[in-house]
């Protein structure tokens, strides 16, 4: 929990249609599909990414379940940076690995592995 917000990585059967609000930030068709599994009927999905794909994207669940979609790719950075700096929001659980900047090629190869979360480069 972060400031009363339930954070979920991965989906279990009991999670289906159990969230009033879901923030989709993967930028992938599969992430959007997972989001549609998590959101309650008449819930709200915030799209914090651009899904740029030539594959078909099934929007049927958004219509059938009356889902509200809100696009929010860009926004104010200062409030987000302040929330991170003060610890109101913690993203530590999303950091998979940290590599020295000079090992950027190795970091990129590592980031390509399935199920890898965020990979950081440290100057």
UniProtKB/TrEMBL annotation:
Tagged with keyword Metal-binding: yes
One Pfam family this sequence matches: ADH_zinc_N
Cofactor list: Zn(2+)
Keywords: Metal-binding, Oxidoreductase, Zinc
Stretches assigned to the Alcohol dehydrogenase-like C-terminal domain: 15-82
Entry GO MF terms: metal ion binding; oxidoreductase activity
Gene3D superfamilies: Medium-chain alcohol dehydrogenases, catalytic domain, NAD(P)-binding Rossmann-like Domain
Superkingdom of this protein's organism: Archaea
Family stated for the protein in its record: Belongs to the zinc-containing alcohol dehydrogenase family.
Protein name, as recorded: Alcohol dehydrogenase-like C-terminal domain-containing protein
Source organism: Candidatus Nitrosopumilus salarius BD31
Organism taxonomic ancestry: Archaea, Nitrososphaerota, Nitrososphaeria, Nitrosopumilales, Nitrosopumilaceae
């Amino acid at each position: 929990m972060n400031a009363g917000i339930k954070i979920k990585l991965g989906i279990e059967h009991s999670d289906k249609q159990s969230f009033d609000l879901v923030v989709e930030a993967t930028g992938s068709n599969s992430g959007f599909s997972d989001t549609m599994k998590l959101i309650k009927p008449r819930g709200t999905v915030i799209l914090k990414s651009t899904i740029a794909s030539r594959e078909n994207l099934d929007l049927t669940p958004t219509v059938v379940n009356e889902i509200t979609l809100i696009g929010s790719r860009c926004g104010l950075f200062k409030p987000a940076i302040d929330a991170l700096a003060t610890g109101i929001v913690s993203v530590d659980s999303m950091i998979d690995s940290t590599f020295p900047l000079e090992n950027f090629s190795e970091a990129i190869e590592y980031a390509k592995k399935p199920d890898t979360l965020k990979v950081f480069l440290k100057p």
